[in-house]
Design goal:
The longest helix is centred in the first third of the chain and has 22 residues. By secondary structure, the chain is an alpha+beta fold. The strands form two sheets. It has a three-stranded mixed β-sheet. The termini are far apart. It contains three helices and five strands, in the order αβαβαβββ. The protein has a domain of 68 residues: Trypsin Inhibitor V, Chain A, CATH 3.30.10.20. It is elongated and about 65 Å long.
Length: 100
């Protein structure tokens, strides 16, 4: 019997198991509103959430500045217990702008 196909199959099974295990892990998503984007990233990642997307809360397509000078107005989902693979969506404005 050749070892190559057996090793590949074992690797696939291990990856599927690991993927399912990760989906089952949950963490408490904190309230991220009214914080700077840098602080939000730090808090979300400390809680185990790494899938973070952003958008301009004022719909002006000004996304390049978000990572340095943004303040979060809204988050989806709201604070609560979620799988750590949950995508966190943030609506952000420049620090000197007012949230809508």
């Amino acid at each position: 019997m050749r070892k190559g196909p057996v090793l590949i199959l074992a690797a696939i099974v291990a990856l599927v198991w690991l993927s399912n295990y990760t989906k089952q892990q949950t963490s408490e998503l904190p309230d991220l509103r009214h914080l700077t984007f840098h602080n939000v990233q730090t808090r979300a990642q400390a809680a185990g959430f790494n899938r973070i997307t952003t958008q301009d809360a004022l719909h002006r397509d000004r996304t390049p500045w978000i990572a340095t000078t943004g303040t979060v107005c809204f988050q989806q989902p709201a604070l609560g217990q979620y799988s750590i693979t949950t995508q966190i969506s943030l609506a952000v404005v420049k620090t000197d702008d007012t949230c809508p």
